[in-house]
Automatic annotation (TrEMBL):
Protein name in UniProt: Predicted dehydrogenase
Domain GFO/IDH/MocA-like oxidoreductase: 131-265
Signal peptide feature range: none
Domain of life: Bacteria
GO molecular function, one term: nucleotide binding
Gene3D superfamilies attached to this UniProt entry: Dihydrodipicolinate Reductase, domain 2 (3.30.360.10), NAD(P)-binding Rossmann-like Domain (3.40.50.720)
Domain Gfo/Idh/MocA-like oxidoreductase N-terminal: 5-119
Annotated keywords: NAD, Oxidoreductase
Cited InterPro entries: Gfo/Idh/MocA-like_OxRdtase_N (IPR000683), Gfo/Idh/MocA_oxidrdct_glycsds (IPR050463), GFO_IDH_MocA-like_dom (IPR055170), NAD(P)-bd_dom_sf (IPR036291)
The organism of origin for this protein: Agreia pratensis
Length: 376
């Protein structure tokens, strides 16, 4: 591959703005075309971000300068679009989740491997300097041996602000598949593969109402649990408990704590690329009832803050350097497997063994990784 790497974006929805803005700032890549089912929308986004061409999905897949396809379509279309890109001889970066069924994702990854092509999967927040600062601290033994983690995402729900929230409460979404990828990807990046999961889930109501925009007051069905609690067991011995809810009057986003044999660490919100990391060490003595405030030590965040698109940049550099990239399709598949297994556990009431794994520890980002350098 020679720089700049030609990128074609499929899907010109809201999230395409941040992708197009960031990718256009990386010297190692060049966005050459935007495609969408609604070509006028593709044209609008292309002109807004200075992309020279626009058109249909087929136009992106057939463009001779496109080496990597960025799949920003709805989750139900992820496998179809990514598979078409692989068939066209393109590498793929897909928004999360990588797909909605195990068999489809497994075939996608096998087809890519047969053709010598890469698949990358969001979220790439795990490449951000916030999370990487915390990960380095754990790897360096700052809190001793990691034992367990707790994570929390709870909100009253996107139906209060989103003008078209129906898809977020449909099969393939809900708090588990919409927000779960951030938390589970981060946990797997820290601890390695999950070997089993158990979950409880419930709905606040069978239907909800749109509160914002032109369709305010319209009712829509709720197809999935809107509050879930997960217990995950990792092959290396760690455990984690996670709450994901669209039903909470108390707003708490991005709570992520890792507790080790020698101390505890606050990890930044895994839905963000930066944030606070702080730790405290275990007390050596404690009087009964002395539960006073503990003293946290802040960690200096190291690395360049960008945003979405960082995982794709790492992938194209990894291709050139013949090394594994970080946010792989294999990782995306494992995270999907954990989430689908959690759904199955809600129904069965039992732990579900995870059939997939990852072949090696998730790599870390070098401190000197510079998105704005020309390296290829």
């Amino acid at each position: 591959m020679s720089a700049p790497i030609g990128v074609g974006v499929i899907g010109a929805g809201v999230i395409s703005d941040t992708y197009l803005e960031n990718l256009s700032s990386f010297p190692d890549v060049s966005v050459v075309i935007v495609g969408d089912l609604v070509e006028e929308r593709a044209k609008s986004q292309a002109q807004k971000h200075g992309v020279p061409s626009w058109g249909s999905v087929a136009d992106v897949l057939g463009h001779p300068d496109v080496q990597v396809v960025v799949n920003l379509t709805i989750p139900a279309a992820h496998i179809e679009v990514s598979s078409a890109a692989i068939a066209a001889g393109k590498h793929v970066w897909s928004e999360k989740p990588l797909g909605l069924d195990r068999a489809g994702v497994a075939k996608l990854l096998a087809d890519a491997a047969d053709r010598g092509l890469r698949v990358g999967s969001a979220p790439d927040t795990i490449l951000g300097p916030g999370f990487q600062t915390a990960k380095r601290a754990i790897q360096e033994g700052l809190i001793g041996e990691p034992m367990f983690a707790t994570t929390t995402f709870q909100t009253i729900g996107p139906d209060l602000w989103h003008p078209s929230p129906e898809f977020l409460f449909a099969e393939g979404a809900g708090p588990l598949l919409d927000m779960g990828p951030y938390y589970i990807s981060a946990l797997v990046s820290l601890f390695g593969p999950v070997d089993r999961v158990a979950a409880l889930g419930r709905k606040k109501a069978e239907e909800r109402f749109i509160h914002a925009g032109p369709n305010a007051g319209k009712a829509f069905p709720v197809e999935v649990p809107t509050s879930l609690q997960l217990l995950t067991s990792f092959a290396a011995g760690q455990q984690a408990s996670s709450l994901l809810s669209f039903d909470s009057a108390l707003e708490r986003h991005g709570v992520f704590e890792v507790h080790g044999s020698e101390g505890s660490l606050i990890v930044p919100d895994p839905n963000q690329f930066e944030g606070r990391s702080a730790y405290l060490t275990a007390r050596t003595s404690l009087a009964d009832g002395d539960w006073g405030e503990q003293e946290w030590t802040e960690l200096e965040q190291k690395g360049t803050v960008v945003g979405r698109g960082l995982g794709l940049l790492d992938m194209v550099r990894a291709i050139s350097e013949n090394r594994p990239h970080i946010a792989t399709g294999e990782l995306g598949y494992h995270v999907l497997d954990v989430m689908l297994s959690a759904q199955e556990s809600v129904v069965s009431g039992e732990f579900v063994a995870i059939g997939s794994s990852i072949a090696a520890p998730v790599p870390s980002v070098p401190v000197d990784f510079d998105p704005f350098a020309r390296t290829l």
